[in-house]
Amino acid sequence: GLIPPGPGKPQPRTHEGYEWLYVLSGELRLIIGEHDITMAPGEVAEFDTQVPHWFGPAGDRPVEILSILSREGERIHVRAAPRRKPAGG
Asked: Taking the CA of residue 1 as centre, how many other CA atoms within 13 Å lie in the half-sphere pointing to its CB?
């Protein structure tokens, strides 16, 4: 999703789960616990969301990210369509 710059100070929060963030464009500011990180396009972060965290644009421009949240911790669930047989096979 696209996150526009916003007014005010970051407000870290906590909740159940595990999150993966991938920066598509722009710069992402990620605060996790006592760490304050700036991420560039192509960089990935993963973290336990029970640690206080906040993320948003690092500057005055929007940032576009891909975010995956699992409410059940580190377990990954995969759903895929059945494989199609190759044409002519």
From this structure: 6
